[in-house]
Amino acid sequence: MKDLQQFSSQGIVTGDLDKAAMKIVSKLGNWDITYSGRLTTNEEGYLWNGDIEFKAPDFVKFVNILNFNYNPKSFALGQFSLNSHLVGNSNKFKLTNLNAYVGANNFQGTLWVDKSGPKANIVTDLDITRFEPERFFYNGGQKNSGQTSSGIALKPEATTEEADFLACLLYTSPSPRDRSLS
């Protein structure tokens, strides 16, 4: 979080503490955030309903600042940008009309996140117009004869056969340009 020590924000807010309409442009470290919509309160806290734009210059660094240990094959996947309509609170939210880029990789659709239970639940309905899976995944698993060749991270209890099967699902075409999810 050291990189996020500087914060600035400007905008306009109308309403009161229970219901407000706003347009806010913020900068947190090197992240750019714009929100335009409503903020209301209910028994679960604040409820957001509006459009959000977010940009971070380095996707891997962004994910790791969020306290994940993400070490993909490519150390730099490029800029992360997201435009979407946001409805929900910090525990349960939905992003619709989502258009996100990680470098040149584009994801469009809907994302639902529910962190209210003991384990986070994330569901997506995405169209992926370009996806380079070999850049996103790192495999630290071992085969008896050495490193595995797939691009899937293994769970500690998983077998290399499981990773090979998962890699077959990801790589459906011999051409790197034509790779897609099955």
Keywords, separated by commas or semicolons:
single chain, 12% helix, disordered C terminus, mainly beta, 10 strands, eight-stranded antiparallel β-sheet, 182 residues
Fold and architecture overview:
The protein has 182 residues and is mostly beta strands. It has 3 helices and 10 strands; from the N terminus they run ββββαββββαββα. The two termini are 37 Å apart. 9% of the residues are buried. The C terminus is likely disordered.
Q: Give the strand order of the largest sheet, numbering strands 1, 2, ... along the chain.
A: 1-2-3-4-5-6-7-8
Q: pLDDT below 50 for ≥5 consecutive residues: which ranges?
A: 139-182
Topology as H/E string? EEEEHEEEEHEEH
Number of helices: 3
Mean pLDDT: 78
SS-derived structural category: mainly beta
**Beginning-to-end CA distance, first to last residue:** 37 Å
Helix content: 10-25%
Work out the strand percent: over 45%
Number of E strands: 10
Biggest beta sheet summary? 8 strands, antiparallel
Shape descriptor reads globular
Radius of gyration: 19 Å
